[in-house]
Design goal:
Largest sheet: 2 strands, antiparallel
Number of strands: 2
CATH class: Mainly Alpha
CATH superfamily: Intergrase catalytic core
Number of domains: 1
Structural class: mainly alpha
């Protein structure tokens, strides 16, 4: 799995605008839903921890991005003028890139690499599997993902085995 993640990541950074590589990295590292990633404010690039309100659950979440992730975001944003969204729409500066556009880019990238389709929610599930492999703490993972039921978290971690 990590080999495919590396291939996808490298392809996104090379073949598409840097933003899609960053979206991929944020998803893999934080487990945020794509709706939260695309709507991150520009100012988040210069903050740690990130305190966000999740779009789906309306719950607050505190995220401690890795120094490498913060550095990657800051590197891409160092030349940018201040704006509202970290991932601003190219067509309308008042909007952020859409989750549908991210899906299209990820799907095209996975096809180009000969990989199975990479849905945007795959990032969240990959985060869950990696977190569980590293920590073996399902209850903490349930809390991080803001799942109401442990059974949902179990599907994320072990669903690929079904």
């Amino acid at each position: 799995m990590d080999k495919n993640i590396s291939k996808m990541r490298e392809h996104l950074y090379k073949a598409y605008k840097r933003r899609y590589g960053l979206i991929f990295d944020i998803g893999i590292e934080t487990g945020l839903r794509i709706s939260n990633i695309v709507s991150l404010p520009w100012s988040i690039a210069f903050e740690s921890p990130w305190v966000i309100r999740e779009v789906k659950t309306d719950k607050q979440r505190v995220i401690y991005p890795s120094p490498g992730l913060l550095q990657a975001i800051q590197k891409s944003e160092s030349e940018a003028l201040e704006r509202r969204w970290l991932f601003e729409s190219i067509r309308d500066k008042n909007k952020h890139v859409s989750r549908i556009q991210v899906y299209r880019v990820f799907n095209n990238a996975s096809k180009a690499l000969g990989l199975p389709p990479v849905a945007t929610h795959s990032l969240r599930k990959t985060f869950a599997v990696r977190y569980f492999e590293a920590h073996r703490d399902l209850l903490r993972l349930q809390e991080i993902l803001n799942h109401k039921y442990l059974s949902t978290t179990l599907l994320y971690v072990f669903g690929h085995l079904a």
